[in-house]
Amino acid sequence: MGMKSYRPLTPVLRYKTTNTFEQLTTGTPYKPLLVSNKRGSGRNNTGRIMVRHHGGGSRRFIRTLDFKRDKKNIPGTVETIEYDPNRSAFIALVKYADGERRYILATANMKAGQIILSGENAEIVEGNCMPLKNVPVGTQVHNIELLEGRGGQIARSAGTYAEVAAKENAMVQLKFPSSEVRNVREMCCATIGAVSNGEHMNMVIGSAGRSRHMGWRPTVRGVAMNPVDHPMGGGEAKSKGGGGWHHPRSPWGQKSKGLKTRKKRKLSGKYIVRHREK
Fold first, then answer.
1. What is the distance between the alpha carbons of residues 270 and 233, in angstroms, rounded to a whole number?
2. Do residue 101 and residue 190 come from a single domain?
3. Whether the Cβ atoms of residue 172 and residue 183 lie closer than 8 Å to each other
4. Considering 201, 236, 261, which residue would you say is the last residue of a domain?
5. By CB count within 10 A, which of 113, 154, 237, 257 is most buried?
6. Cα 113 from Cα 79, distance rounded (Å)
7. Which domain holds residue 263?
8. pLDDT at res. 38
């Protein structure tokens, strides 16, 4: 999968890049698996803005994805590889032997016509889903469960994966690209391979209009605001926090660089063998 650049005929095109979408096989989604989406524009049920800079954008339909992969021992055929506007990765439409169709996350090398299988007896082939106890050490996996039957929660965005590092005491150690090592129960399921569209991180939006189409509204720097609007606002001419040096903060005063926001007593913290910071 590659990225496409443009001749600099205009200032917008000088740095703009888009995906070539070579892996996709169709531009039409499977309608029975579409769900209409009411755009909240970052607001809660009372109309207050909870997430800033959200709103507008092109209309989207939600694709219902199968993260559980619970059709055990029923082979499926990949019919199409499609674009999903709600996520960075591509998705694949799978038709199972019993006639049911489901969307799953497409892997990096998945192609139309490929046969996939979910279950303990599945082979170590990209796109197959199985418990981690059956996955050899050194294999890349994605869509990883944290609790049996809950469905994949880790490594679901474009290009992400985890590597099976070790197995011990009914636990499997997974090593992530961030260098974090985490224990996961061996009965939790995962899908073989890395997620598709690994070049997504290299995409350059390039223009304000394209950003608006994606649902992002303009963002104003805190130092450009008044003191009443932001902790870093105010001061004569350009300054950091009203004329003196202040640590970068959010509009509500929370430090935005270096502050550890993870709860110290979070239940899943005991499963982390090696933290990414170390």
1. 41
2. yes
3. yes
4. 201
5. 154
6. 6
7. 220-272
8. 83
Q: What per-residue confidence (pLDDT) applies to 240?
A: 64
Whether 84 shows a pLDDT value over 60: the answer reads yes
Residue 211 lies inside a defined structural domain of this protein: no
How do residues 160-194 score in pLDDT, each as one tens digit? 999 999 999 999 999 999 999 999 999 999 999 99
Please give the model's pTM, rounded to 2 decimal places.
Answer: 0.89
CATH number where 256 lies: 4.10.950.10
Q: What is the CATH number of the domain that holds 118?
A: 2.40.50.140
Q: Residue 269 phi/psi, 5° resolution?
A: -65, -25
Residues of the chain with pLDDT > 90, as a percent, come to: 77
Q: What residue type is 223 in one-letter code?
A: V
**Nearest of 112, 108, 118, 111 to residue 68 by alpha carbon:** 118
CA angle 187, 192, 193 (to 5 degrees): 145
Same domain membership, residue 227 and residue 183: no
User: Kind of pairing, strands 272-274 and 3-5?
Assistant: unpaired
Residue written as tokens 């110290």? 264
How many whole angstroms from its chain centre is CA 141?
Answer: 15
